[in-house]
Recover the amino acids of this structure.
């Protein structure tokens, strides 16, 4: 450290948090990226000040004896205070910044007029206080704040001006300081309004994070003042400060979750058309095979989860394992793609409804129908277990019922090899087995327990334990066996009751031990009766209408047919003409 005498004749005022200052270079360049102005500046963190000097943190190395114009914001009087200052000493910090001691030079006669341009320039940066309050910079440590703030470029856009153009490479993100703008997507010959952006919001980050082309147009609605960050500067900063990438990744995830309409995105041979759902760790899109025109479902790992190396490995394992599955009761995977810094799984598109939606409509299921769905689940799980995969999140929402009654198990995203212990990837607490709640390794019996909770819900219309207190709920899972469903439904068939009790014991050693064994126990329910035996009734409805009413009636019937299928009702129609 090089020292120049610094006589502290006055008490210094220290600041908590970030105190913004500006340095205008007179005989050196301290800014990382030159703006368009002739004079160069750098933003600094002011640690303390007195009437005689200051202690600042600077991004750039400076030599003792260097003289420059130093301006800092005095919050007590809401003004920028200018001083000519001389560097007394400079010391490098572990962060890569420099701690610099300044001595104010009060005898500046003849210099103020010469540097009036610099003073005026500094005064324009009162709006940098906005950056101190922005969520973008709050996501960074203080030393990273200085590096970021010194590479931002202020831009102004007039109403109607395009800030970002759909289909172009994403070279910049923008932090909006003033004004509003519209986010528009051009799709199928139409321009669709997706979002309205205003002060404090970040835009353009999706392309920087995912490396995709810009997926939308951003157009200034009013006069917009924004701070621009280039891709190159972002990558430099993110390499040193991962929190910046994490923060923007969270924004990307929220945006992709909320935008139902997106520009068509190409994932290998497949094109994404629209978002159709989301879960805790993935976003689900409807897509199409580009050359075969075959509808598909595309499941994308959320970008904030893709940043987690552990979870990314689990997701890849799911993809690689279930891509090899071929079973009528497990959703089929066509392809796996790693693009845009995440993973996509391309699956068959199913027509039907998740089992939880059916329960929401019916309350509970007839015994024969419940038993049929449970037996199909056992058959699918047995296939997966034999190949070393535990699902770990069996629940009605992950059991999909096709219109022909065939069940498909969805969402192997929490799948893992037997014996895996991983608290960070727990399933849904309402269906979680005791060993999973306690952080012990999951095995095939964990799926059996979750299936028992699911079976209880199917036949009684409610889950077995009270749920108003999550902590208490988890305690009940670990302290009690599943309640006897006969206490709620007195006429439950003995085989179905025994299946639920056998699956739902808290001690894994006392449960039904395999999905094959559970399936055999359930098959006794069907002894002497066909699977999914239901007494059939028929309702005949005759509709008399005029020719001009046909289109409206067809629309009504399509809606009615869809709701009927959801309830398991078969709808057949016949048309008779000229009946008078």
């Amino acid at each position: 450290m090089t020292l120049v005498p610094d006589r502290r004749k006055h008490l210094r005022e220290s600041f908590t948090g970030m105190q913004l200052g500006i340095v205008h270079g007179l005989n050196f360049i301290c800014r990382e990226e030159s703006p368009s102005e002739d004079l160069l500046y750098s933003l600094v963190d002011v640690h303390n000040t007195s009437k005689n000097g200051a202690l600042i943190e600077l991004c750039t190395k400076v030599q003792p004896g260097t003289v420059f114009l130093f301006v800092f914001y005095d919050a007590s009087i809401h003004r920028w205070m200018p001083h000519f200052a001389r560097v007394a000493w400079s010391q490098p910090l572990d962060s890569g910044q420099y701690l610099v001691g300044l001595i104010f030079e009060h005898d500046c006669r003849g210099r103020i007029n010469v540097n009036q341009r610099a003073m005026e320039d500094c005064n324009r940066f009162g709006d940098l206080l906005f950056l101190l309050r922005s969520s973008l910079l709050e996501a960074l440590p203080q030393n990273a704040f200085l590096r970021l703030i010194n590479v931002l470029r202020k831009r102004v856009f007039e109403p109607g001006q395009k800030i970002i153009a759909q289909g172009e490479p994403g070279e910049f993100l923008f932090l909006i300081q003033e004004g509003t703008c519209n986010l528009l997507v051009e799709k199928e010959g139409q321009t669709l309004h997706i979002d309205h952006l205003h002060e404090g919001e970040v835009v353009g980050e999706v392309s920087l994070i995912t490396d995709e082309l810009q997926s939308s147009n951003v157009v200034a609605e009013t006069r917009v003042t924004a701070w621009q960050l280039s891709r190159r500067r972002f990558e430099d900063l993110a390499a040193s400060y991962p929190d910046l990438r994490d923060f923007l990744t969270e924004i990307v995830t929220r945006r992709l979750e909320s935008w139902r309409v997106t520009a068509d995105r190409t994932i290998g041979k497949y094109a994404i058309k629209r978002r159709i759902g989301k879960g805790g760790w993935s976003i689900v899109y409807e897509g199409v095979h580009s050359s075969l025109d075959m509808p598909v479902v595309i499941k994308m790992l959320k970008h904030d989860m893709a940043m987690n190396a552990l979870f990314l490995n689990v997701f890849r394992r799911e993809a690689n394992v279930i891509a090899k599955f071929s079973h009528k009761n497990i959703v089929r995977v066509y392809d796996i793609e790693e693009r845009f810094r995440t993973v996509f799984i391309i699956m068959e598109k199913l027509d039907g409804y998740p089992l939880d939606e059916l329960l929401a409509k019916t309350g509970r299921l007839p015994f024969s129908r419940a038993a049929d769905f449970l037996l199909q689940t056992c058959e699918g799980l047995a296939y997966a277990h034999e190949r070393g995969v535990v699902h770990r999140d069996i629940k009605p929402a992950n059991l999909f019922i096709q219109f022909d009654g065939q069940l498909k198990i969805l969402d192997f995203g929490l799948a893992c090899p037997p014996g895996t212990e991983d608290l960070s990837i727990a399933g849904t607490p309402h269906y979680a087995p005791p060993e999973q709640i306690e952080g012990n390794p999951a095995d095939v019996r964990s799926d059996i327990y979750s299936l028992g909770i699911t079976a209880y819900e199917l036949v009684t219309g409610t889950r077995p334990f009270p749920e108003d207190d999550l902590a208490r709920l988890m305690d009940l899972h670990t302290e009690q066996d599943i309640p006897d469903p006969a206490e709620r439904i007195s006429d439950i068939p003995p085989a179905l009751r025994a299946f639920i009790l056998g699956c739902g014991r808290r001690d894994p050693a006392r449960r039904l031990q395999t999905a094959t064994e559970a399936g055999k126990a359930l098959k006794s329910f069907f002894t002497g009766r066909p699977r999914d035996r239901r007494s059939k009734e028929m309702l005949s409805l005759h509709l008399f209408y005029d020719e001009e009413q046909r289109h409206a009636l067809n629309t009504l019937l399509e809606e009615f047919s869809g709701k009927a299928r959801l309830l398991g009702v078969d709808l057949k129609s016949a048309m008779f003409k000229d009946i008078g």
About this structure: The chain has four domains: 13-130, 152-259, 275-348, 353-526. The chain has a mean pLDDT of 77.
